[in-house]
Design goal:
CATH architecture of the largest domain: Irregular
Radius of gyration: 19 Å
Order of helices and strands: HHEEEEEH
Number of helices: 3
Oligomer: single chain
Shape: extended
Helix content: 25-40%
């Protein structure tokens, strides 16, 4: 689902609120989440999950095509851990999911 689809769905569910106000609320929430992550903060949305940052140290890797050794710099990775309610709902809807093993 892309952001514009989310705004449309919320606007349909809340007809008393103008679409531009819904879009402003969604954009503001996402921007605050980005700012919190930029500041190294953890974000937890109860029932949905949590976002946090993980440090990945510098390492040596190998280019599979040439076999050449490559130095990869240290970086910070975004990590999402789904909450129990989200995991349960997704697992319960597995029969509707087009993804198979």
């Amino acid at each position: 689902m892309v952001k514009s689809e989310l705004v449309r769905i919320l606007s349909d569910k809340l007809p008393e609120i103008q679409t531009r106000d819904v879009e402003l609320a969604v954009n503001s929430m996402l921007e605050q989440m980005i700012v919190a992550l930029e500041n190294g903060e953890r974000i937890e949305i109860r029932g949905f999950g949590s976002f946090d940052l993980r440090h990945q140290p510098a390492r040596l890797a190998r280019n599979p095509k040439t076999g050449e050794t490559v130095n990869l710099p240290a970086k910070v990775r975004l990590h999402f851990k789904p909450g129990k309610e989200l995991r349960d709902r997704v697992n319960d809807a597995l029969s509707k999911c087009p993804i198979t093993e």
